[in-house]
C-alpha cells in the first residue's frame, strides 16, 4: 500500500500535435499558450490559435485530461488588451485553469472571471508563504508553481503555511536566475524574456561552424560559447555560455548546460505535499514529449504503487546530457 | 539516379505534402519564403527547399554547385529522416551535435515546429505521394529507419 497521494502530472505542449501526444502518453494536464507575447515560450512556429486551442481542449477533455493556459508574461502599458483578450479567450474555451504571473492580470481574472480557476506562474517568483497567501487571499489563487530555488524541506514548510496547492518543476531546462527577474536577453537583444515572452530569440541567434568541426554560438553581437569538436552543445542562452574572466578562461561563468531531473526526489516531493509535478519543455518536439511524459507517467505510478521505477532513459533527453537536482537537493548545486 | 530524373519526383512529394498540410504554412509565417539547404551526409546530392505555398520548391542540387541559401541543415540522412518523422528529438540531436544548423535560426526553428505539428509522419505522406507504389516506398523508409534505430 502506498504512502502517497498520486500527484497530477502536468506536461508541456507547444503545438496541437504535442498536446495530443502528451495526453496520449499519460498527462493528467497539459499547459500551453497562445501565439504571441502573452506566454513565456513565444518562439517561431510555436503555440496555439484560438481555434487550435478550442479543438485541443475538446481532445483533452474527451480523454479526461485538463488543459491549463499559460498567460504568464508581463504586459506593459498600452499592451494590456492583448493579455486580457487571451484570458477572455481561454475562459470562453473552457480552460481548466489560467496560469498568471502579472499581478494586474491576476486582478483582471479574479474580477472579470471570478469562477475561473487561477494558478500563479513560476514567473511570479512567489516563494514565501506571505507572498503566496497574498495571491490566495486577494485573487483566489488555487495553486502556486514554485520557483526552482527551494529545497524539499523548504517546500514542505511552505506547504504547511499556505492555503493553496503546490506545483513543482521536476524535469527540463533550468536556469539559476530567479524566475521572472532575468534581464540578460533584454540586455543583449532589446527583447524581454519577461515582457515579450522569449529568452534568446531565434532571430538573434547565430551558429557559426569552423573548419575543425567547432561551433561558435552568438546572441546578437556577442559570442556566448565556442564549442570544440566532440563537445556537446546547449541552448543558446547567456546564462549557459562560456566566458573569459579575470580569474578563469573559457568557463561557464553562470551555469553549465544541464537539465533538472528530480526523478529520484519524487517520493520526497510527494511527501512534502506537492500536488502537481511539472515537466518543462513547450519548445521541445513531440518525440521529447512522448518519451518524457511516458517515463514520468510510469515513474509516478510506480512510486505511488510502492515500486521502484526505471528512469535510466531520461538522461539522453537532457541538455548537454547532464542532469542536476538543482536547489531542490542543495542550495549550492553547482 | 541523375539529378534531372529526381526533380519531378521531388516536385510531386512537396506538392503532395503541401496539399495534405496547409496548416504548415501558417506556422511557418514569414519563414516560408526562405531557402533551406539540406545536406544529408552520405547522399550524392543536396536538397533545396522553399516551403512557399505560392512558389513551392524542392529540388536536388549537385554538391559541386554554388547554392544560395538562408539556412543550412546537415546531418546523416537517416538521422534527418528520423527527426522529420518525429522519431527522435531535434534539440537532443543538436545538443549531441548529430545535426548542425547555420544561417537563419528563426527560419529553421519555425520549420522544425511546423513539421513537428504534423500528426501523420512525413514518411507516410511521402509514401502516399507515390500512389500505387506507396507500399514499397514506405517499406524502404522503414528499412532505413530500422538500420539507424539499431545503431542508436
Number of domains of chain A: 2
Low-confidence stretches of chain B: none
What coarse outline of chain B follows from CA principal-axis ratios? globular
Radius of gyration of chain B: 15 Å
Sequence of secondary-structure elements of chain A: EHEHEHEHEHEHEHEEEEHEHEH
Q: Provide the domain count of chain B.
A: 1
CATH class assignment of the largest domain in chain A = Alpha Beta
Largest interface: chains, residues each? A-B, 38 and 32 residues
Q: What's the shape of chain A?
A: globular
Strand count, sense and barrel status of the largest sheet of chain B are: 5 strands, mixed
User: How far apart, in Å, are the first and last alpha carbons of chain A?
Assistant: 37 Å
Helix and strand succession of chain B?
HHEEEEHHEHHH
CATH architecture title of the largest domain in chain A: Alpha-Beta Barrel
- In terms of structural class, how would the helical and strand content of chain A be classed? alpha/beta
Pairing-aware structural class of the strands and helices of chain B? alpha+beta
Protein name (chain A): Ubiquinone biosynthesis protein UbiU
InterPro entries (chain A): Peptidase_U32 (IPR001539), RNA/ubiquinone_mod_enzymes (IPR051454), UbiU (IPR043692)
Subunit structure (chain A): Forms a heterodimer with UbiV.
Pfam families (chain A): Peptidase_U32
Question: Would you kindly provide a written description of the structure presented here, covering whatever features stand out?
Answer:
The complex is a heterodimer of chains A (334) and B (152). By secondary structure, chain A is α/β, with parallel strands linked by helices. Helices cover 30% and strands 18% of the residues of chain A. Chain A has 2 domains: 8-174 and 258-329, Alpha-Beta Barrel (TIM Barrel), CATH 3.20.20; 184-240, no CATH class. In chain A, strand 9 and strand 10 form a beta hairpin. The longest helix of chain A has 19 residues, at 286-304. The radius of gyration of chain A is 20 Å and the shape is globular. A 5-stranded mixed beta sheet of chain B has the order 3-2-1-4-5. Chain B is an alpha+beta fold. In chain B, helix 1 (3-20) packs across helix 6. Chain B is globular. The interface between A and B is medium-sized, with 38 and 32 residues. Chain B: InterPro entries: SCP2_sterol-bd_dom, SCP2_sterol-bd_dom_sf. Chain B: This is SCP2 domain-containing protein. Chain B: It comes from Maritalea myrionectae. Chain B: Residues 35-116 form the SCP2 domain.
Amino acid at each position: 500500500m502506498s504512502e502517497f497521494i498520486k500527484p497530477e502530472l502536468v506536461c508541456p505542449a507547444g503545438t496541437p500535435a504535442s498536446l495530443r501526444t502528451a495526453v496520449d502518453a499519460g498527462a493528467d494536464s497539459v499547459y500551453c499558450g497562445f501565439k504571441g507575447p502573452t506566454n513565456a515560450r513565444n518562439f517561431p512556429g510555436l503555440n496555439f490559435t484560438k481555434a487550435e486551442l478550442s479543438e485541443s481542449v475538446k481532445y483533452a477533455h474527451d480523454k479526461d485530461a485538463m488543459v491549463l493556459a499559460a498567460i504568464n508574461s508581463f504586459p506593459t502599458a498600452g499592451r494590456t488588451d492583448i493579455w486580457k483578450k487571451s484570458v477572455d479567450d481561454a475562459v470562453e474555451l473552457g480552460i481548466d485553469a489560467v496560469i498568471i504571473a502579472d499581478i494586474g492580470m491576476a486582478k483582471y481574472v479574479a474580477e472579470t472571471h471570478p469562477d475561473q480557476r487561477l494558478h500563479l506562474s513560476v514567473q511570479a517568483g512567489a516563494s514565501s508563504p506571505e507572498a503566496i497567501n497574498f495571491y490566495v487571499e486577494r485573487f483566489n489563487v488555487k495553486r502556486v508553481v514554485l520557483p526552482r530555488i527551494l529545497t524539499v524541506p523548504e517546500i514542505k514548510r511552505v506547504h504547511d503555511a499556505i492555503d493553496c496547492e503546490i506545483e513543482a518543476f521536476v524535469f527540463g531546462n533550468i536556469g539559476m536566475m530567479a524566475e521572472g527577474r532575468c534581464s540578460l536577453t533584454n540586455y543583449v537583444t532589446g527583447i524581454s524574456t519577461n515582457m515579450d515572452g522569449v529568452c534568446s530569440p531565434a532571430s538573434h541567434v547565430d551558429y557559426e561552424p569552423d573548419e575543425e568541426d567547432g561551433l561558435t554560438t552568438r546572441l546578437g553581437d556577442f559570442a556566448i560559447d565556442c564549442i570544440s569538436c566532440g563537445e556537446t552543445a546547449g541552448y543558446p542562452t547567456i546564462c549557459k555560455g562560456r566566458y573569459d574572466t579575470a580569474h578563469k578562461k573559457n568557463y561557464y561563468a553562470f551555469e553549465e548546460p544541464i537539465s533538472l531531473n528530480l526523478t529520484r526526489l519524487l517520493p520526497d516531493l510527494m511527501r512534502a505535499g506537492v500536488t502537481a509535478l511539472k515537466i518543462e519543455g513547450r519548445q521541445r518536439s513531440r518525440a521529447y514529449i512522448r518519451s518524457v511524459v511516458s517515463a514520468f507517467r510510469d515513474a509516478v505510478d510506480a512510486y505511488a504503487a510502492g515500486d521502484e521505477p526505471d528512469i535510466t532513459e531520461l538522461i539522453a533527453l537532457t541538455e548537454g546530457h547532464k542532469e542536476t537536482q538543482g536547489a531542490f537537493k542543495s542550495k549550492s548545486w553547482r | 539516379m541523375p539529378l534531372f530524373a529526381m526533380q519531378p519526383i521531388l516536385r510531386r512529394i512537396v506538392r503532395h505534402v503541401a496539399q495534405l498540410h496547409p496548416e504548415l504554412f501558417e506556422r511557418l509565417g514569414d519563414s516560408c519564403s526562405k531557402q533551406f539547404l539540406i545536406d544529408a551526409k552520405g547522399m550524392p546530392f543536396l536538397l533545396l527547399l522553399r516551403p512557399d505555398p505560392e512558389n513551392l520548391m524542392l529540388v536536388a542540387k549537385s554538391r559541386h554547385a554554388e547554392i544560395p541559401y538562408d539556412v543550412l541543415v546537415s546531418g546523416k540522412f537517416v538521422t534527418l529522416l528520423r527527426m522529420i518523422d518525429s522519431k527522435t528529438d531535434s534539440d537532443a540531436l543538436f545538443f549531441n551535435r548529430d545535426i548542425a544548423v547555420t544561417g537563419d535560426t528563426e527560419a529553421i526553428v519555425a520549420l522544425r515546429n511546423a513539421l513537428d505539428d504534423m500528426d501523420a509522419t512525413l514518411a507516410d505522406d511521402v509514401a502516399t505521394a507515390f500512389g500505387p507504389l506507396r507500399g514499397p516506398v514506405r517499406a524502404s523508409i522503414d528499412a532505413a529507419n530500422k538500420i539507424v534505430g539499431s545503431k542508436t
